[in-house]
Amino acid sequence: MADVKTATANSGTPRAAGKPKNSNNFWINLVIVLVCIAIGFTIRSFVLGNPANFSDPERHVPINFLGNMYLGGYVVPMLIAMFIVMLVFVIERAVTIIKATGKTNGGEFVRKVQYHLANKNVDAAIAECDKQSGSVGNVMKAGLVKYKEMITDTELTTEQKVMSIHNEIEEATALELPMLEKNLVFLSTITSAATLLGLLGTVIGMITAFAAMSAAGAPDPNKLAAGISEALYNTALGIGTSFIAMLFYNLFTTILDGINYSIDESGFTLTQSFAAQYK
After folding, report:
1. pLDDT at 6
2. At what angle are helices 158-181 and 135-152 packed, to 10 degrees?
3. 155 with 3: CB under 8 angstroms?
4. What is the pLDDT at residue 242?
5. DSSP letter, residue 60
6. What is the pLDDT of residue 108?
7. Best exposed site among 3, 65, 193, 213 by fewest CB in 10 Å?
8. Using CA atoms, how far apart are residues 174 and 178, in angstroms rounded to an integer?
9. In the chain, which residue ranges form alpha helices assigned H by DSSP?
10. Do 76 and 121 meet the contact criterion of CB atoms below 8 Å apart?
11. Are 77 and 230 in contact (CB under 8 A)?
12. What does the DSSP 8-state code read for residue 155?
């Protein structure tokens, strides 16, 4: 029992070692966000604010879609920045999650490992993990290495050996899953924040339009409609960004649920196989 406790206690070491990496990720993500904000303001100044988008560049009288977006105010570059941030993390998560799914289907992979374990060929099972080269394969390989070690162990009881394999799988899972879920918080935040920011820009634009009409005395319906139209560009951009972020967030979480299920299945396979064959 003492050996099992030692293995459990040592499982905390890799997590502690991962903290500086998480800190580095925070600063990298912060830099990405700041760069995207700078790009957003650059696009507003040099693309949306291009004189070619206005019939009267000095008075900013728009003649096309880009000119109207420019008049949406300073919320527009923030929304553009949010859209770029969303694209960056969608691409980053897509690359990571596609790699994590591995080269073979999780269910098929687990069945192959079960076949090799049934024939007591642990090395072949480990080779299957190397072929899979995904998160399920990584967790399964960690468990199989401990599995192979426990076969030759003569000091622990079968129950203690099974517990040791279980602890190894839990440790490998605890190290693997955070890397898959990392940065999804950006997509979940953008899903709601983009819509709210777009509405804020619209409200500010409408307040400005009505204030200008009030100061002018007799209201001009055409100018009022133009002002409201410009303000609504914020809402359109915010809702569009939110919609795309929501789609990819749900897609990624669905894929991760499948990976989690395969990892749970692989852990159950190892412990049950050992308990049945090495009593």
Report:
1. 40
2. 160
3. yes
4. 96
5. T
6. 86
7. 65
8. 7
9. 2-10, 12-17, 19-43, 65-70, 75-101, 106-118, 122-132, 135-152, 158-181, 184-216, 221-277
10. no
11. no
12. S
Using pLDDT thresholds of 50, 70 and 90, give the confidence band for residue 222.
low
pTM exceeds cut of 0.90: no
| Distance between CA atoms of residues 48 and 41, nearest Å | 10
pLDDT of residue 223: 66
Residue 166: strand, helix, or coil: helix
- φ, ψ (nearest 5 deg) of residue 114: -60, -40
Dig out the tokens for 136 from the structure. Answer: 């399920």
- Tokens of residue 226, six digits: 């133009």
Residues 263/173, Cβ–Cβ less than 8 Å = yes
Predicted pLDDT at 126:
94
Residue with tokens 């977006």: 69
Of 189, 239, 198, 165, nearest to 85 by C-alpha is 189
Residues 6+ apart with CB under 8 A from 220: 213
* AA identity, residue 153: D
